[in-house]
Amino acid sequence: MSNTYPRSFSHIGISVPDLDAAVKFYTEVLGWYLIMQPTEIVEEDTPIGEMCTDVFGAGWGSFRIAHLSTGDRIGVELFQFTNQENPKDNFEYWKTGIFHFCVQDPNVEELAEKIVAAGGKKRMKAPRYYYPGEKPYRMIYMEDPFGNILEIYSHSYELHYASGAYN
Q1: Residue 142: which of 90, 106, 94, 81 has the closest Cα?
Q2: The pairing of beta strand 121-122 with beta strand 33-42
């Protein structure tokens, strides 16, 4: 019988159409640390090339990647593939898969405006309160300048949900 315990979150990979612009956005707007400069990975007979062929299959050619880290040491891999396609609608939340990620900032409104000023957009008119008049927990859905969906929470995930069911 195996032990079940909560695993830590290591990293997330995000595809973007312009790696340099994405590194600039995520470091300057969200304050994430660049821990590995943008690098080109080529389909060839090297350990990294072979590993990528295992993942993507033969014929992937090349891509660019940069590695960042959040304030709580979660890794963020930014990928720019040569055959990059921007979907018409990147918010198909009803389909299986990850449809957003969330960052935490006590000043939800200020970060939302910074994202808009950097070319992103709000997916909601304004932040909403989880417990209006009762607790200061706020959230808003946003889009980065590349169409990726992100959410901003004012407080930790645990605090948002420890109060129980939605009212």
Answers
A1: 90
A2: unpaired
| Cα–Cα distance for residue pair 138/131, rounded to 1 Å | 8
Q: Per the domain annotation, does 1 fall within a domain? A: no
What would the two tokens of residue 106 be?
């006590």
Rg of the chain taking only CA atoms, in angstroms: 18
Rounded Cα distance between 19 and 63, Å, is 10
CA 159, 162, 163 angle in degrees (round to 5)?
A: 105
Q: Count the domains in the chain.
A: 2
Q: Which domain holds residue 20?
A: 9-84
Amino acid identity of residue 133, one-letter, is G
pTM of the entire structure?
0.90
CA distance 132 to 139: 12
Kindly report, residue by residue over 109-124, the tens digit of the pLDDT.
999 999 999 999 999 9
Q: What single DSSP character describes residue 6? A: P
